Amino acid sequence: MKEREKVFKELISDNEHKIRRVCSYYAHSEEDRKDLYQEILINVWKSFETFRGDSAVGTWLYRVALNTALGFSGKEFKRLRFNVDFDSTRLNNLGCEDKASDAMVLEHKFALLQNRMNQLSVIDKAIISLVMEGLPMREIADVIGLTEPNVRVKVHRIKESLREDLKGGDYDC
């Protein structure tokens, strides 16, 4: 096997879970997720030789995956739905504490949060998906192409907006 292919396979193997999560955020059906996954692999392969190492390989991979996901729906990407599987670890990255113990209340809280997240702009969806992945602000800035202080401000505003929209009753976040 050629060295390039070996390194590529290792890169994909080491980061498969990251790529699949990006696919799950930005594709509705299982078939769309499979198609998006393949599209990301193609784009990673095409740009693999031009990776200069200016950033961490994981950051570069997220950037390729995110750009592919945003372009996947073509001109429809502004209406792109953001899909989040219920995962308290990911929600904790948003600063949501689990105050409700009842499963139905928690499920409803999650549905409200996901609905509100789908109303975010494309760039805010991208930023919040990386926050949910637990990436540091510096890496998010590198992936998105903004300055780190700008990303910090955006994250703060997104979180505050989500908290405000979900305020009230047992659904405070």
TrEMBL record:
Transcription recorded as keyword: yes
Keyword Ligase among record annotations: no
Pfam families: Sigma70_r2, Sigma70_r4_2
GO MF annotation: an example: DNA binding
Keywords: Sigma factor, Transcription, Transcription regulation
SUPFAM superfamilies named among the record's database cross-references: Sigma2 domain of RNA polymerase sigma factors (SSF88946), Sigma3 and sigma4 domains of RNA polymerase sigma factors (SSF88659)
Protein name: RNA polymerase sigma-70 factor, ECF subfamily
Ranges where the RNA polymerase sigma-70 region domain occurs: 11-70
Any one GO BP annotation for this protein: DNA-templated transcription initiation
InterPro entries cross-referenced by the UniProt entry: RNA_pol_sigma-70-like (IPR039425), RNA_pol_sigma-70_dom (IPR014284), RNA_pol_sigma70_r2 (IPR007627), RNA_pol_sigma70_r4_t2 (IPR013249), RNA_pol_sigma_r2 (IPR013325), RNA_pol_sigma_r3/r4-like (IPR013324), WH-like_DNA-bd_sf (IPR036388)
Domain RNA polymerase sigma factor 70 region 4 type span(s) in chain numbering: 112-162
Protein family (similarity comment): Belongs to the sigma-70 factor family. ECF subfamily.
